[in-house]
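stage 2 :: seqdesign
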């Protein structure tokens, strides 16, 4: 069932875990993620990125909204990193209950001004704004930021930022990196504790890939309420398709078992389901 992002995060956070927010790109990936959530009886967030919406528009959004509505567990819909207020409004009108208004590359005062506009816009749709302070190294939707340029979230600034913007969720930068990195990123847990002490909205950790189970569970215990997962499921999906290509060769024989498009889609979806299952278990069953 479709549920508001904030209600969902509060439900899960009360139990002492984090909600996994999975980026999805198509129906097969969505199906794999939702089946994982249903099998574990855990709520999840589905997120779409700006590039996917530019490429596939309302049909992709409609499929994602419907998948959330018919799911056997609570599912919330979030728009990931967006700097375009028109697109945020469009997605809220289409049924998303939250969006990441990402002004993290702006100077502080400009980020505040941008985020305030997004919050005012979202209020008209009873929706919530995730904001970001400090930005992440790595890549997302074609944007590359040199790791050395990455700036970490300042705890005092974080409090001012939330007070001045009214954002409902805060994505923080504590050494996390988008995508895989050559060496595992190390998280600044002391900074996380300081931000947690200063800010009373749920905190979001992006770039969970490569941090490892121990680091992620520690971050959740210290207050991370929403964990963004993209790379793991996305790359597993790609590998499943690549493996299918190797297996069937350049000329698939549709009369043979496992050569058909339906087999390809089901196989990739099942692979996404397996990886999503691991991520949900890691975020909800804290050891
Ligand atoms: Zn992100």
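stage 2 :: out
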């Amino acid at each position: 069932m479709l549920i508001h992002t904030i209600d969902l995060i509060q439900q899960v956070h009360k139990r002492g875990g984090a909600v996994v927010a999975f980026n999805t790109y198509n129906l097969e990936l969505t199906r794999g993620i939702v089946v994982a959530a249903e099998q574990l009886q855990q709520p999840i967030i589905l997120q779409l990125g700006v590039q996917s919406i530019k490429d596939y528009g309302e049909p992709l959004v409609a499929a994602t909204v419907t998948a959330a509505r018919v799911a056997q567990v609570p599912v919330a819909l979030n728009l990931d990193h967006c700097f375009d207020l028109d697109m945020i409004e469009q997605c809220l009108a289409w049924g998303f209950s939250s969006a990441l208004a990402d002004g993290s590359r702006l100077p502080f005062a400009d980020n505040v001004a941008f985020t305030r506009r997004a919050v005012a816009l979202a209020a008209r749709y009873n929706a919530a704004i995730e904001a970001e302070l400090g930005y992440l190294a790595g890549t997302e939707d074609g944007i590359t930021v040199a790791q050395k340029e990455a700036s970490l979230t300042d705890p005092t600034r974080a409090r001012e930022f939330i007070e001045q913007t009214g954002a409902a969720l805060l994505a923080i930068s504590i050494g996390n990196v988008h995508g895989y990195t050559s060496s595992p990123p190390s998280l600044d847990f002391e900074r996380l504790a300081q931000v947690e002490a200063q800010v009373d909205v749920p905190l979001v950790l992006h770039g969970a890939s490569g941090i490892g189970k121990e680091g992620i569970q520690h971050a959740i215990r210290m207050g991370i309420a929403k964990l963004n997962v993209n790379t793991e499921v996305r790359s597993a999906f790609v590998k499943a398709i690549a493996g299918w290509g190797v297996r069937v060769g350049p000329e698939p024989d549709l009369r043979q078992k496992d050569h058909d498009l339906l087999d390809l889609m089901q196989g990739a979806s099942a692979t996404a389901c397996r990886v999503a299952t691991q991520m949900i278990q890691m975020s909800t069953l804290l050891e």
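stage 3 :: structure notes
- Residues 261-284 form the longest helix (24 residues).
- The mean pLDDT is 91.
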